[in-house]
Amino acid sequence: MTTSKLEASTSTVDASQFQHTPFYCEENVYLLCKELSKKGIAEDKSSDLFVVLISNEKKQIPLWHQKASNRADGVVLWDYHVICVQRKVGGGDSPSQHLVWDLDSTLSFPCALATYVSETIRPTFQTFPEFQRYFRIVHAPIFLRNFASDRRHMKDSLGEWLHQPPLYEPIVSEDGTVHNLNDYLDIRATDVVKEAGHGMTDPVFTQKLGVVVGENQLEEFFSQIP
Fold it and tell me: Minimal CA–CA distance to 28: which of 171, 218, 179, 174?
């Protein structure tokens, strides 16, 4: 599909067209990537999509403009959050404008990456060090093959659901793994890439768990994606 067709198709998208189960953002994004390709909004096999898992060692990350918030500024202190970023290649004099697909956001759907960073992540907002956000970026085709969740993280010590699960069956990876969500969410400051340029982005196309960047590297990372 050409870039112009992809751009035209996003203008008629509504979040209600996609599966959404509150508090199961990792599964929501998994299904979102598949559906964007199925609808022709994304490239075949989701090759222009990236799954971005946001967390830190303390599992405390503030994000603004969230539907789950009861505050005027829409801030929520999540333990983790998962979004989809779509690589958009500009044509002619038009610059690239990567898109964020966040089913839990009150911003536009999709939203320009630059807008999402400034409004939802707010890297210039002064917070305590324990609220520093880190981003594990995984190429969607790799994520779709390898991700698995039996939803054990959503049960308490007695085996009761903390939040009601989706009605469909749990996601199992292609190799039969039933749960590896914790591997994706083990995000630490020491994991953040030190390389610049393509040295930063190349591993995302080969590594199962992608790469980890800091909140001030997110836009730079996608600007380097070929």
Answer: 171
**pTM score, two decimals?**
0.92
97-141 pLDDT, tens digit per residue, is 899 999 999 999 999 999 999 999 998 887 888 999 999 999 999
Active site residue 139: no
Integer-rounded Cα radius of gyration of the chain: 17
Active-site position among 81, 98, 104, 139: 81
d(CA 116, CA 144): 24
The reply to whether 111 belongs to the active site is no
Cβ contacts of residue 225 below 8 Å, gap of 6+? 50, 87, 201, 204
d(CA 49, CA 139): 6
Judge whether 118 and 63 are in contact, CB under 8 Å. no
